[in-house]
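Contributing new records

If you add data, match the layout below exactly. Sequence lines come first and carry their own label; structure lines follow with theirs. Keep one chain per record. Anything else will be rejected by the validation script.
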Amino acid sequence: MEITALGYIAINSSQLDQWGRMATGLLGMQRVDRGGKMCAFRMDDRKQRLIVDGSSDAGLAVMGWEVPSTAELDQLAGRLESHGVKVTRGSRALADERHVAELISFADPAGNRLEAFCKPELASEPFRPGRPISGFRTGALGMGHVVLNVEDVEPLLPFYRDVLGFHVSDFGLKPYGLYFFHVNGRHHSFAMVGSGRKAMHHFMVELGSLDDVGQGYDLAQLDEGRVAYTLGRHTNDHMTSFYVNTPSGFFIEYGWGARVIDPETWQPHETFDGPSLWGHERLHMPEEQRKRLRDMRLDAAARGVRVADPRVPPLNCAWLDHVVARE
């Protein structure tokens, strides 16, 4: 089993006040001050999910991956070391800072820092959202997902797939290389974009209600330049979402309604319809790049590509059934 979920993300940003306003007022997280140049944000019963360290502006600091037990943490550490990966046992001070029992630190071949941990601490007080929302979809599915820009996906595939044990959900090769990985029922908890550069692309949080997302979209549009991708729906995980620009130069996806897969039966496959069924206009991109993605959406629409929504029963209309059958 070993890695079962994305547990937390830590970023470096001196813009603590801006992060605080956005994470609470727009996203609906709960701010927890950690003293000095450090703050954290809750999404559920965990003591923290997002950590912001104000000592630098280096962007993504670490991705924290959860394992069920000390034994499985040791097993993961052993496998990493057998593949030549340097593993550092986290100090008691670092474990306390992360609010976990134990952890290890290591890096992928591109230098991105990862931590694996077990036994996260739960808060004694109930989660209090920064604005009225129904809540975040976490639990066994984890915090959400994280997507990295990488220079080249291929050299990193063996590390994430064969060493860490992530499972490929699907991949696309146009307009750029995209690989999506699952570690539980969430369609993807991790993904890589072969954009030719090394940086955080985005992380995603999923809400319990479409209205949470719609109301967040209204709020985001009141802040000039906040929306990075317009409201849309993804082809692979079926998420309805929009993306916002952050004070750190990457994006956050704010979504609802993603599919849950069965990891035991899921088969990896290549996708050809582009990243989005509709919407998700990339407002930050030059027009030429936006048009390429827009044309992929329009082509998919012209071919009748759509996905079922399991929350809505199928149409049951005798008149419509007759018309469809006649055509």
